[in-house]
Structure prediction request, 158 residues.
Amino acid sequence: MTALIETALSVNGERRILDVEPRTTLLDALRGIGLTGTHAGCEHGACGACTVLLDGETVRSCLVLAGQCGGREVTTIEGLGTPDALHPVMESFRRCHGLQCGFCTPGMVLTAVELLDENPSPTEAEVREALSGNICRCTGYAGIVAAVLDASSSVVSE
Ligand code: FES
Ligand code: FES
Prediction:
């Protein structure tokens, strides 16, 4: 049996100590503690479904080892908002029909949050560029792009 290693990190503002195998990805570690909003799609860095924020920057959690995350801050979709208190970007996805099945949505939303943190008033081209690493098999992207542009107005006007 593989020996476990201990990694202490912050997940959605809460300190967590995880015992993981050296090969355990951050994706599997997060899902293993019930944070199943981080979705496992391709599991090799191609689809963006597993995107989370690591110290405020998007990463593909299927490509990060949990054991590398000691002392770092992880934000998953669950840490961004709740059904009763949606984050403004979540609210825009709801308002603009930026999802259908929802599988890509956590990764899309977290990618949009990072974009709007860096660039509160992106152009449509900049939104499409920022989302270009996130695959959606349902929407055709129009509603997603509209949602991010809608959120940019919200962010600017707050
Ligand atoms: S599951 Fe990580 S990029 Fe697809
Ligand atoms: S809403 Fe289904 S994959 Fe994007």
In short: The two ends are 53 Å apart (CA to CA). The domain at 5-79 is CATH 3.10.20.30 (Ubiquitin-like (UB roll)).
